[in-house]
Amino acid sequence: MAQVTSSLSAVFLYKHGMVFDCKKMMTIVILSNLIAIICTVVAHKQWGIFSHDPVNGPGLLADPSLKFAAVLFRHGNRAPEISYKTDPHINFFPEGKGELTKLGKQNMYKKGKIFRLLYNGFISDLYLDSEIFIQTTNVTRTFMSAALVLAGMYPPKDYQKWLDEETVWQPIPINQNSPDHGLIFRENCPSFSAISKNLLSYKNEENLTELLSYLSEKAGQSISEMDLVKLYDLFECQISAGLQLPEWITPDKFQTLKSIVLHRKRLDNFFGNSKVQKLVIGPLLKEIALTMELHSNNSISQNKLRKMYLYSGHDISLATVKGFFMNTIDMPDFGASIHFHLYLDETFGYIVKIFYYDRWNTEKEEELPIHACGNPCQLQNFVKIMKANFPRGWNEECQMIEN
User: Where would one find the signal peptide in this protein (predicted)?
Assistant: First the structure.
């Protein structure tokens, strides 16, 4: 393999524990510890969801030829990010706007149990820092989801039991600043702001004026075109929490709102747009590809490379990944995940496969085709595709406004 570049070396050194900022790492560990204690120990006492038997034998995906796995998963169920004046459930979510709910905590703990079911044997049943690296976007719901997933994957056993009494949790470092830019709507990125206005416009939608007027009247406040996504999200969050929508949200009205917000052509145009892909998931996919490349480098001791990366992220990120690989795009449910696997095949050498799980409790994978990479997708082709599609750094890409 060609000599590893300086940027690649930086990824290797940081993500494989050879250099780090002690002060930042201590802050991250303390934060993850506090989150995990709150999310898992309290849950253990109150929810009764921790009686699953330990996994024995190899996991469903623990093939001997599997050399590396990177998993991007969406956070668990959360509270809505807005409310409206006449909302009958305005006080139902005490966690706060956009925060992980009780149900979300339960589900992401179970997601961790499923990861154990899938990867047992590929990764040890003891937490080993040399095996796994966990990174999250910088919001509390993804930090908490990561903590709960890890609690499900790594219940303390043997020497890692740190209390005499029963506990389902142990401290595991969670790192911030994920390369996933699923929160790009909150970031200062001029090129994304410019392109998203065109791609997400509702101006040509039929019945839009009538719907906005109806929603404004019933909500007791003005509802604009820009409010539709978050209003639809509010209803979806309430439905997932088992709440009944107000009578004025009839099935017909809800379907009209859904058909506008999740219009197939608009979703395809947005998540299939090359600029959106560069900005939302470009850095993440490049990092995964380069890490795979490290694993194929025989001059680097595999004992110094972590076998698994976990990225706690968002629905926009997963949908953009599916769009990049030209797969059918539906907005991912809470706890959905995309799994990138590197295998050493006897015939073709290193090959890449991608699997999709559509929600938190799905145990059966769907393999996603990697278009333009060949079948099987050989690693060198996968890396070439990533480098060709994502040639620039994220900050530079953000400043390049297309006409």
Answer: none
Residue 337 lies in a domain: yes
Residue 371 lies in a domain: yes
258 and 274 inside one domain:
no
Tell me, yes or no, whether 197 lies in a domain: no
Q: How far is CA 382 from the centre of its chain?
A: 21
- Say if residues 74 and 315 touch (Cβ distance below 8 Å): yes
Quote the domain boundaries for residue 28: 6-186+269-399
Q: How many domains does the chain have?
A: 2
Buried b (16+ CB within 10 A) or exposed e, 51-86: eeeebeeebebbeeebbbbbbbbbbbbbbbeebbee
Q: Which of 214, 232, 262 is the last residue of a domain?
A: 262
Whether 309 and 348 map to the same domain: the answer is yes
H-run or E-run covering 383 = helix 379-389
Classify strands 337-345 and 349-357 as parallel, antiparallel or unpaired.
Answer: antiparallel
* Whether the Cβ atoms of residue 377 and residue 370 lie closer than 8 Å to each other: yes
Can you read off the two tokens belonging to residue 78? 């959360």
Q: Where are the alpha helices (DSSP H) in 5-96?
A: 6-15, 22-36, 42-46
pLDDT in tens, the chain (403 residues): 444 344 444 444 456 554 445 444 444 544 555 555 444 444 444 444 444 457 778 999 999 999 999 999 999 999 999 999 999 999 999 999 999 999 999 999 999 999 999 999 999 999 999 999 999 999 999 999 999 999 999 999 999 989 888 888 899 999 999 999 999 999 999 999 999 888 888 877 888 999 999 999 999 999 999 899 999 999 999 999 999 999 999 999 999 999 999 998 999 999 999 999 999 999 999 999 999 999 999 878 777 899 999 999 999 999 999 999 988 878 999 999 999 999 999 999 999 999 999 999 998 899 999 988 999 999 999 999 999 999 999 999 999 887 6
